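Sequence design from tokenized structure. All designs in this work follow the same two-part layout: the structure record, then the generated sequence. An example of the structure record is given first.
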């Protein structure tokens, strides 16, 4: 029997309940994984609350994990029992100590990446990869604004953008988070709860604005994010931790001929070739020391509700793991 956390009703963290289930033998194209680390992401909150539809209840939850292959199904030749693997996206159900998963979406892990690092990197590291390398390719000499700079994606993105030669402005919610962001490559921490945070960004750019804003906060920052853009700038909205983004008038873009995009990891990693290339790039940056993985919180699988409460209360920094 495997332990699985499922959503029993849409709403608060109390609706996450631990159950015992049987995990079947892998079918054609599948692998059965014994999980050793599970990544916690704001996407899980969106699923739990019903903001993002996930089908009938009770429903599985979780999109990221790492572990060891226990068995493979018919037709699987790229993996074998004992291989260390990680994944992101695909069928929900990462909140479990064992599960089935499509073998062609599993990424083999190199020796220098631990299971815990992998469970922290697949969602957050690959998100940073497509944001900085594909959605708006950051160039040396640019000044960029990254919201939630002390979060899981933020800490990776600050290090990566700095290595690309960018000057990084990063919004944070506390002095502690500011210090953490600076330690991971953020040049100028900006407190977005202060009324003049947009003015601070404008001052740091000599009133020119930035060519790109990466915004995962959403409702609380979206208006200011537009105001921080330089003409022809790009606003990348890749999350909404403060709440859904209100409707955006087309005229807001016309003010500076702005570009607006709402990317998703599912679209950017849909092709296996893109998934493998992005993962290889992230893992290589870990190997050469460009990215240092910050795992700041660990919760037991049965304490998933507590982990969600901490995440929503903004009490977390860096990456948070569930440990089966």
């Amino acid at each position: 029997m495997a332990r699985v956390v499922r959503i029993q009703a849409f709403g608060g963290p109390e609706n996450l309940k631990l159950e015992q289930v049987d995990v079947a033998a892998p079918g054609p194209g599948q692998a059965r994984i014994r999980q050793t680390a599970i990544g916690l992401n704001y996407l899980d909150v969106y699923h739990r609350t019903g903001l993002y539809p996930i089908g009938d209840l009770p429903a599985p939850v979780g999109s990221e994990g790492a572990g060891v292959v226990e068995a493979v199904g018919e037709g699987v030749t790229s993996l074998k029992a004992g291989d260390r693997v990680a994944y992101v996206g695909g069928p929900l159900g990462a909140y479990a100590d064992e599960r089935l998963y499509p073998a062609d979406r599993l990424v083999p892990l190199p020796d220098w990446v631990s299971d815990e690092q992998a469970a922290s990197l697949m969602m957050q590291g690959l998100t940073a990869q497509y944001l900085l390398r594909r959605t708006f390719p950051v160039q040396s000499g640019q000044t960029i604004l990254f919201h939630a700079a002390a979060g899981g994606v933020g800490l990776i993105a600050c290090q990566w953008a700095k290595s690309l030669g960018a000057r990084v402005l990063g919004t944070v919610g506390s002095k502690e988070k500011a210090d953490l962001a600076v330690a991971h490559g953020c040049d100028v921490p900006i407190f977005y709860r202060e009324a003049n945070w947009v003015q601070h960004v404008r001052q740091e750019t000599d009133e020119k604005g930035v060519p790109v804003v990466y915004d995962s906060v959403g409702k609380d920052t979206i208006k200011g994010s537009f105001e921080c853009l330089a003409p022809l700038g790009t606003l990348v909205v890749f999350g909404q931790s403060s709440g859904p983004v209100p409707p955006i008038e087309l005229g807001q873009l016309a003010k500076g001929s702005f570009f607006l995009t709402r990317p998703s990891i599912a679209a950017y990693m849909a092709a296996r070739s893109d998934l493998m290339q992005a993962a290889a790039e992230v893992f290589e940056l870990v190997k050469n020391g460009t990215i240092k993985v910050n795992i700041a919180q660990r919760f037991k699988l049965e304490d998933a509700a507590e982990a969600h409460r901490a995440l929503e209360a903004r009490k977390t920094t860096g990456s948070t793991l569930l440990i089966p």
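The chain is about 30% helix and 25% strand. We note this feature because it recurs in several other targets discussed in the main text.
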